[in-house]
Model the fold of this input.
Amino acid sequence: MSSLRTLDPVRTRDDLKHFVEAPNRLHADDPVFVPPLPSEARRPVDRELNPFFAYGEAELFMVRGKGKVLGRIAAVDNPRHNAAHQARDGLFCQFACVDDPSVAETLFDAAAQWLRGRGLETMVGPVNFTTHEECGLLVEGFDSAPRVMMPYNPAYYPALLETCGLRKAKDLWAWSHDLSPLDERLLRIAGFVQRRKRLSVRPLDLADFDAEAQRIRHVYESAWRHNWGFTPATDEEFAVLARRLRPMIDPRFVLLAEVAGEPVGVVLVVPDVNQALSAMHGNTTRTGRLVDLARMLLATPRIDRTRAMLFGVVPRLRGCGIETLLYVRVHEALKASAYQGGVELGWTLEDNTAVNRFLEAGGCTRAKTYRIYQRAL
Done:
């Protein structure tokens, strides 16, 4: 490494502050970049805020040059992931970097060395500590801003990773629907399924939020259990995720399907708060943050897009039409609302043929591709 650059692990509160703020400084001029709220940017890497650190470990690295952060990365040892998948994977995440292969190589080599030292054999990512958080590097779809809780990176990132010896492990797809009228066949199927006596579809009851969250968790863990990379969340991880989502939830767009009172399917759509966050400039001073907050609040009433974060049915009832009923019902709810800017669904696994075909039949088109990479250690 150049004598003008240093590789530093994060050790102090000041180090952590610079680590968290790095993307805002690196991508301030990128018109598609959406600066996160400072609390959201800090939460994953703060050991007191992220319940991952109750069982896992991570090391954070930065490359500095001429008084500036040129890049950052987190190397992650997630033992619950490895136990669930009988693997010896080390994860990486929080990657942000200038367009300089030498900086990227320094970061990935440091992460690889730390992971090897813990007896791990493969480096996989980006996975933001767990698959319940943001996953993947954007490789297609750079022309539009990311939806809420989806990652973003400039178009030069994939080449940086490939230069560092990382190769594709799996692609994740995001889909879009412009809320155009649905195919009559879907409507007929939904009408037929809805007449079943023991089946009901209802909106979320915010007054009973904690219990409703557990019903969603029941479906989520059952429906996603056998998906590539999935590891059930701990109680605290799920509680933190639920608390993050609650301020965004509009109960009209969170539907539970139940059979004789048992939750068997869920669709969870939230307003795209990134539309409001994009009005912020990622300022790091206290005054700047207050100005950013005012901009965000003024932009909030103009949100018209949504993101479908969850859409699934428990395995034993797949193919019975419940998916179609949920899809049609949430489409109707969105059409009757002020959110007319379209919905993004995802992500889905590239090889989840059944779900991807269903979305295509429902009028969705692929909007973005995110990639999980891997590299032998």
